[in-house]
Inverse folding.
């Protein structure tokens, strides 16, 4: 298994004994206040709609020093039942969406979730570009660590006392207001060591995109957006946009894939993916492509890009035309699947 390597040039900042995550740090004076706040939330949702009703619950917002974050979260995760819905938020590369929100729509075994947490914990608990967690419905429990490494807990009424005792065991007390890194101007950064191809026989250190792909596969995550619309973070309809996609094309099971880098125009992610599949099916390359078509096509990258960025990637001086669905480029390589 490729390894996680933290950038050794990054140092942890501390203020008054409060250690910040490696990937998030204040750029203004800050006096951190750790502890937690709690408030009651009434049941909401509709069992007859697309999502199940959340019951009456208490919401806890928790701020804890970086040295104790992992231990606290692992204790909270131990309250989850045998099957859960993992969650992953990543500050991605889409030009019109700040965060790529992933969630499992099917229950996943808790061992599978915890294996991912253990294997990638340095990234999950330190990187300022990712948030993660899990939830269950019976008992109702939601635990999420955001990109600031603040912890949000939503717990059914029967778990309230247990949660409070656990927070108290970490010397966390109720406070009127939390003060963390997000209370002032601050910076986010990735913490993984830069990728270097040094010719070593050892597996190369993982990059963030590879970790996301491994977790989406292991945790059965799906991008939690409507695939038939094309809107920005403010809900504005964007119509046709340019897309940058990477397609891994398998000729047979367990074979090394051919990789296609695709630039296209489409009006939603569902149609963009269809355009990508059509592009690799109709392309005469790469040499040795199967005559009966690809056995499987995977699309680990499917991001919207600006017209200017699309023109730069195509080597054009003018912005690309976005009037209709189109394939603008298919470039092949033979990079193996990570």
């Amino acid at each position: 298994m490729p390894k996680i390597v933290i950038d050794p040039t990054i140092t942890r900042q501390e203020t008054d004994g409060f250690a910040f995550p490696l990937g998030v740090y204040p750029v203004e004076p800050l006096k951190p206040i750790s502890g937690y706040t709690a408030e009651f939330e009434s049941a909401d949702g509709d069992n007859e709609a697309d999502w199940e009703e959340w019951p009456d619950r208490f919401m806890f917002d928790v701020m804890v020093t970086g040295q104790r974050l992992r231990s606290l979260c692992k204790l909270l995760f131990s309250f989850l039942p045998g099957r859960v819905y993992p969650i992953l938020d990543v500050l991605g590369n889409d030009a019109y969406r700040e965060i790529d929100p992933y969630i499992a729509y099917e229950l996943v075994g808790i061992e599978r979730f915890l294996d991912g947490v253990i294997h990638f914990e340095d990234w999950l608990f330190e990187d300022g570009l990712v948030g993660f967690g899990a939830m269950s419905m019976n008992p109702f429990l939601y635990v999420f660590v955001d990109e600031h490494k603040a912890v949000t807990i939503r717990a059914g009424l029967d778990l309230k006392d247990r949660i409070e005792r656990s927070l108290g065991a970490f010397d966390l007390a109720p406070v009127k207001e939390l003060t963390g890194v997000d209370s002032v101007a601050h910076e986010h950064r990735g913490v993984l060591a830069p990728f270097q191809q040094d010719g070593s026989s050892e597996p190369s250190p993982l990059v963030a995109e590879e970790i996301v792909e491994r977790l989406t596969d292991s945790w059965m995550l799906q991008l939690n957006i409507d695939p038939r619309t094309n809107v920005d973070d403010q809900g504005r309809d964007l119509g046709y946009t340019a897309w940058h996609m990477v397609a891994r094309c398998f000729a047979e099971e367990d074979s090394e894939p051919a990789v296609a880098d695709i630039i296209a125009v489409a009006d939603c992610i569902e149609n963009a993916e269809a355009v990508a599949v059509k592009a690799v099916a109709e392309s005469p390359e790469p040499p040795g492509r199967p005559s009966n078509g690809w056995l499987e096509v995977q699309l680990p990258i499917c991001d919207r890009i600006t017209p200017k960025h699309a023109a730069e990637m195509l080597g054009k001086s003018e912005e690309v035309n976005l009037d209709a669905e189109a394939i603008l480029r298919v470039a092949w390589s033979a990079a193996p699947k990570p």
In short: The chain has two domains: 14-187, 227-333. Residues 269-282 form the longest helix (14 residues). The first strand starts at residue 14 and ends at 15.
